Each structure stands twice: as C-alpha cells, then as structure tokens.
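Hi, here's the filled form for the chain we discussed.

Project: internal
Contact: R.S.
Residues: 147
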Amino acid sequence: MAQAPTAAARPTPPTRDPHTPGYVTAKDLPDGANAPAKEDGNFILGPTHNPAPEMTAQEGVPQGSVFTFTMESADSRIYPGIAREANTFGQTDPTDPARMVVTTSHPAPYTRQVAVYVPSNTSPARPRRSLSGRTDPTGRCSRPWTI
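And the returned structure, exactly as it came back:
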C-alpha cells in the first residue's frame, strides 16, 4: 500500500521585535489581558487573551446572517493574484528594520473562501457599507465582522 507523501517541515518565519526603533511605541499587556476599550494606543497582547465582551452574542440584539462564497482571483480586473515560493520568507531590510523585503513572490491565481456578515435590519431600500476580513493563513475565513 502506497503512503501519502509527507509535507516538508516549514521553516520558522522571521520575527521582528515590536520595540525596534521606527515602530510605533507599543505597550506590552500581561497574558490574559485585553487592550483597554477607552484608551488609544498600540498594544501587544499576550499569547492568550479573553474575547472582547462586544464579540459575545447578546439576547435582544438582532443577529444577522453570514454568507460564504468562493472568490477566484482570476475573475478580478484589479488584483489577479500573487503567490510566494514554498517555504520562503521575506528578509528584514538592513536599512529599515520596520520593512520586509520579499523577493520570492510572483503573480499567480488563487481561490479563497470569503464570509460576509449582513445585519438583520439591512434592506435594499437602505443599503449599508460593510467591510469584511480574512486573516487565517490556512485559508479559512476569520470570524466575520462588519464596520
């Protein structure tokens, strides 16, 4: 019986110190703490932190719907796609440690799952602006959000 090929070990990506000169000043928060809701600033969260209370569903608050679809970059006239060579990373710019130099990217189409949250009180007569995000590097959609 043939065995499935094993994936090559992925090298550790480069890590940049957020306290490097040229970065916005950041405040380290203790593990488990969230950034203060009524304070402006750049905060570094620890490895674990509690979800923000406003992200918890509340009784009596209208709940919208999440619509998912597949986006093909080849269908875009603006951004047809980009890929990076496997197991490669950018390098820190020696003249500016806040910049990464990436020379291993090239044009390539991609397919991505997208999730869009639509508030329940939305109607065609009163359209709303929305912004959705995807941050999961595995290709799964992150928790949907709307601004």
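Let me know if anything looks off before we file it.
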